[in-house]
Amino acid sequence: MSQTIFLGGRTHPITVSDEGYEAIVALVTAQRVCTNGCAYTADNPMVTENTCLSCLVNRQSYLRFVGPLGDPDEDGYQQFKFLTEKGNVYLTSTRSDYAAQQDSYQTLVHWGFGVPAVYRPPRGEEVKLYPHSWTVYGNLFSSVVVIEKSYDQKHPATFLSYTNGTFRELTKRDADMKRLLEEATDILEESKGEDGSYQYEGTSSNRIRDSWVYEVVSLIAAAVYDVKVRLTASLKTEQSTDQEAIAS
Ligand SMILES: [Zn+2]
């Protein structure tokens, strides 16, 4: 039994014994370094193929290292998680030499936001919502964001997503949600200038953009959610104080 390896190019195959192959794998694993020559250590692991952590964060200096994401896959490759200042998750994998890539699904999961896995369109069968390509509106450090993805290449499904892991479809077919969308639009209407253009966070447009509406919706929904959480918490404290008073 034998194995084929290549050294310094793929033109001349070398056949080695199985035992020899094992020994070479062990030697290569022990001698492996980053393309800049850095040694891999527990504090400075390989985070993309042939690149160490410190060289990666040198290149993408807006990233802060979080750690491994899950366990290595069946081939032994490992994903790593990074965070930006705004809370976006970036991922690398030792399977490829790609730079760290933003991952909106892992960003939502990291902050505890609920992400639906299936969706029933107003007309038609239930469809799966795969984890890739979510668009996120709002502040990741708040308790509510708006998330959106197209479920059939054409039509977007939009949801309010809460840090308690729940979500609710943001659609005009839902009376509460319709009111929320109208409230946000009314607020944005007030930015209309004399030239007829609208302003939001330093940008200007001749119409109110959906992305603006979703950001304002997330702000309103987060404010309402935060008040509810605070009142529920203080109600619980009062109840337990009352019970203590009765008990004593
Ligand atoms: Zn390095």
Mean pLDDT: 94
Q: What is the overall shape?
A: elongated
Structural class category = alpha+beta
Whole-number count of domains: 3
Main pleated-sheet profile: 4 strands, antiparallel
State the order of secondary-structure elements, H for helix, E for strand: EEHEEHEEEEHEEEEEEHEEH
Count the strands? 16
Rg on CA atoms, Å: 26 Å
End-to-end separation in angstroms reads: 81 Å
Per DSSP, the total helix count is 5
Percent strand equals 15-25%
Helix content: 25-40%
Which small molecules are bound? zinc ion
Query: Strand order of the main beta sheet, please?
Result: 5-6-7-8
Which regions contain 5 or more consecutive residues with pLDDT less than 50?
A: none
Can you give a write-up of this model?
With 248 residues, this protein is α+β, with helices and mostly antiparallel strands. It folds into 3 domains: 1-31; 35-102, no CATH class; 108-245, no CATH class. 33% of the residues lie in helices and 25% in strands. It contains 5 helices and 16 strands. It has helices at residues 18-31, 53-59, 104-110, 175-189, 210-247; strands at residues 2-5, 14-17, 46-48, 51-52, 64-69, 79-83, 89-93, 101-102, 118-119, 127-128, 135-137, 144-150, 156-162, 167-169, 198-200, 203-205. Helix 4 crosses helix 5. The structure holds zinc ion. Zinc ion binds next to helix 2.
